[in-house]
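Support request from a user on the community tier.

User writes: "When I paste my structure tokens into the form, the page sometimes reloads and wipes my input. The last time it worked, I copied everything first. Here is what I submitted, just in case something in the input itself triggers the reload:"
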């Protein structure tokens, strides 16, 4: 597993190793521990026999070859994941997301047979004004982040078509939940509001995103890992579409603060207006259904940040230092 010290990867591994049948699993996490990582995210599983952590880069061919050789599946989460950072400096996005994915695929090909789940994003489809993007929708990424993910998806699928490697791609919508680095909108806004600071809302605030709880994303990835078909793409949606303004209003309410805490700021460059994925395929083929009610999930998330300042305060300071150097 790559990127296991990040937001989604760590939740995935905590869920897997906490589930029935986990005694049969041996999972090695490869993670470079970039600014976005939190090794503490893995404290719950660190002591388990089935868990091993390796600090390293997915672009390191020798290390990746050695690790892949000892495993029968790869679940690939590692990425540079913050769109705003990709606008200021996209080099690391291209290196990690594109080159890193290709290094992993090469190792999987040489040391297989094994299956490879590549975790991607709805952002590869670009903005869609009405209806929803199905898996066959043309890729039209707009940010350097989205372009790097689209490139990695295409390389992954090419390894299936060219070499027959068992590659499965997932494309999910915006994730939310506990332990998300406080540069992304929900933890950024919640932690600002808990600190009595205003929240910066981009443009007119009418950009629309579909929200997917971490538990549901993990459910979808597990269905694809265990029962998905080689060479297929599966969209994973959450079923709650909101404009950023609507989301902000819910966060203000959850934190008990007035609308004067919102500061409208200049829009993000190339800001996609709306993402929406059609997840009929994973529903009909694999039985996926988002289970977490958004109101409940959001309340739990806000409560988690309220109760876990020790976790996010150092990360927030790190994020602010990084933003100053951008
Ligand atoms: P994250 O930024 O929280 O974590 C990324 C992890 O990858 C970190 O632990 C980091 O140290 C590691 N990493 C980065 N570069 C690496 C490298 N070169 N070698 C090894 N490890 C490296 O990201 P996340 O939000 O957990 O996202 C996980 C995956 O899901 C990504 O592929 C992302 O594109 C995708 N995704 C995320 C969302 C979302 O809402 N967060 C939505 C759609 C898709």
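"...and here is what came back when it finally went through:"
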């Amino acid at each position: 597993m790559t990127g296991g010290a990040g937001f989604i990867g760590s939740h995935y591994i905590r869920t897997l190793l906490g589930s029935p049948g986990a005694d049969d699993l041996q999972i090695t996490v490869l993670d470079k521990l970039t600014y976005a990582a939190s090794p503490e995210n893995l404290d719950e599983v660190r002591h388990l026999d089935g868990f091993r952590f390796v600090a390293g880069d997915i672009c390191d061919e020798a290390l990746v070859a050695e690790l892949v050789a000892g495993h029968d599946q790869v679940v690939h989460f590692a990425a540079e994941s913050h769109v705003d950072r990709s606008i200021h400096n996209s080099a690391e996005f291209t290196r990690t997301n594109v080159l890193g994915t290709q290094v992993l695929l090469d190792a999987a090909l040489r040391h297989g047979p094994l299956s490879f789940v590549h975790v991607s994003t709805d952002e590869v489809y670009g903005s869609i004004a009405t209806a929803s993007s199905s898996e066959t929708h043309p890729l039209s990424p707009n940010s350097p982040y989205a372009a790097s993910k689209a490139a990695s998806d295409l390389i992954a699928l090419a390894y299936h078509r060219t070499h027959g490697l068992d590659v499965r791609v997932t494309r999910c919508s915006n994730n939310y939940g506990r332990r998300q680095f406080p540069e992304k909108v929900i933890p950024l806004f919640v932690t600002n509001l808990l600190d009595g600071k205003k929240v910066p809302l981009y443009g007119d605030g009418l950009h629309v995103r579909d929200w997917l709880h971490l538990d549901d994303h993990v459910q979808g990835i597990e269905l694809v890992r265990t029962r998905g078909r080689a060479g297929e793409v599966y969209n994973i949606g959450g079923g709650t579409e909101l404009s950023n303004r609507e989301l902000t209003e819910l966060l203000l309410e959850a934190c008990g603060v007035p609308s004067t805490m919102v500061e409208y700021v200049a829009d993000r460059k190339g800001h996609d207006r709306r993402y929406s994925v059609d997840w009929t395929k994973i529903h009909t083929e694999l039985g996926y259904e988002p289970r977490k009610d958004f109101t409940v999930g959001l309340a739990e998330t806000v409560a988690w940040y309220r109760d876990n300042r020790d976790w996010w305060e150092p990360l927030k300071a790190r994020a602010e230092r990084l933003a100053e150097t951008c």
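Agent notes: The reload is a front-end session timeout and is unrelated to the input. The mean pLDDT is 96. The first helix runs from residue 7 to 17. Escalated to web team.
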